[in-house]
Amino acid sequence: MSGDPDAARVQQRGLWFEEFEIGTVYEHSPGRTVTEADNVLFTTLTMNTQALHLDAAWAARQPGFGGQRLINSMFTLSTIVGLSVSQLTQGTLVANLGFSDIAFPAPLFAGDTLYAETECTGKRVSSSRPGEGIVNITHIGRNQDGVIVAKASRATLVKLRPEEN
Prior knowledge:
4 helices, 5 strands
């Protein structure tokens, strides 16, 4: 705590409903370099026994991905959403309403760095929940070369800006 009781204080938060701008792309920083340990831990925690994620010898014999294991796509999705939290929804999100149009157009491998951006694609004030609004966003994940490795549309329930007293 500051010794000065009159010092200005700023609490990190996401955006209020009113602050989301349709068509705006929010770039999230920093990126996240993905490791083999991340992939194995996430894959085993979620009980996903897919050999493409866990078995290096098996993956080495498979065509199409240069003999490499793939990073679990659910880890990729979770990470691009997570990269957006501090900028967009920390403390302002009420609920995650759902995902749609999820795609993984290119693979992600251990050692790649994942970057995320989010576009606001729509919003409306909730008709059934006073003080809240629905914000539609699209998360996009790119590797260090700018290649899109994940994309997902998402509907969220977000708080409206509190009225000043």
